[in-house]
Amino acid sequence: MKIDVSYVAELARLELTDEEKAVFQPQLESIVKYVEKISEVDTEGVAPMMHGREIVNSFRDDVIKPSMSREAALGNAPSRVGDEFLLPKIVEGAES
Question: Can you name the residues that pair with 84 across neighbouring β-strands?
Answer without folding.
Answer: 81
